[in-house]
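Hi W., the LLP complex you wanted:
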Amino acid sequence: MDHFLYRDGQLFAEDVPLAQIVEAVGTPFYVYSTATLTRHFKLFDEALGGMPHLICFAMKSLSNQAVLRVLAQAGAGMDVVSEGEYRRARAAGVSGDKIVFSGIGKTAGEMHVALQGGIRQFNVESEPEMVVLSRVALELGVVAPITIRVNPDVDAKTHAKIATGKSENKFGIPISRARDVYKMAAGLKGLKVVGIDVHIGSQLTELAPFEAAYLKVADLVEELRADGHTIDRLDLGGGLGIPYTRSNEAPPLPTEYGAMIQRTVGHLGCEIEIEPGRLISGNAGLLVSEVIYVKEGEDREFLILDAAMNDLIRPAMYDAHHDIVPLIEAAPGAEPAKYDVVGPVCESGDTFAKGREMPAMKAGDRIAFRSAGAYGAVMSSEYNSRPMIPEVLVHADQFAVIRARPTYEEMIARDTIPEWL
Ligand code: LLP
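Structure:
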């Protein structure tokens, strides 16, 4: 459920008509609902209610500091994957002891910053990373809490570009080698093993792959404890999928996911951490855009928008589907039209949807892409020298620009022409 609903034929974000935001900031823009963000966070919080837990929002999905502040105030920690994300989380007011640091390529510099600033744990992904972390911790005279990310060799049954838990993927340590690697960790100074980490992929629409992975992790907990390690925390990653269409998709609910966690690892007495991104932010955001032209092709009509692949890359990159809805609801019984929905960028990949059935549109009409909160703004770029689009946060009947649209001057001024030219 989200908080983008029609009232009297007009699409609203909570209690704000989107037309009002269009007037204030111009299109295109991203808009997020505070109520949806907190609602989704609370669903997870309640689903894990029976176990000690921390929900670390995967801020790679949506990293605006205002959004981080909303979630932090609701009690969230953060899952970060770079120094930039770490600094952003801290700037948004998240304390270090609620931040977990994931990623396969953490540099010594990044480790340094996180150890000095405070960190809950590093999710270590390789032996060489462990050696560097030990060295950095010793240099600073501190102890780095770690989990080791294991790769359970489970098929997440999702898009190949976002599956991470098979042995051919670059992530984690093969679970078959985990005991050796934990032994190595125990022998390295400056490290303290606190648990195990696993993340098998994103946009999972079934529980079975999670369950298979968590059962393997549960076995590993027993083995590692028998080997003398302290395993108090399980970071079970993110990945629970969301419905991208209103009709035929029904991925498992957070309550079902929570019950499965309880069933598979609940008996181990560990603190549970999860790293959801998409389920919290995905349906909490829209991308709002205006129709520039409706163009007649040979055998089809093109709806040319002022948003493009640089603003929302998911359709071009993953063939992802986003529902597209008008800001003014079509009259009941109005004849639908069919469009190839495209942006102005100069490549055919800049196509949001092909043959999409939707209400008939004309130049100047506004539409919204649904489910654009996750991996939307964060993956945008200035390709074709199109300035990054603004982000807006709605809270009940208020809204605020939380990232302004840069001026062309600002964008252009970032380049430097060397004096020898
Ligand atoms: N934890 C780790 C270690 C991850 O790598 C990810 C996502 C998450 C948590 C959060 O997963 P989520 O709950 O959001 O599924 N750009 C792609 C998705 C990439 C996901 C990368 N890792 C997309 O637009 O679909």
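Residues 58, 61, 79, 102, 162, 199, 202-203, 237-239, 275-279, 314, 318, 374-375 surround LLP (CB under 6 Å).

W.
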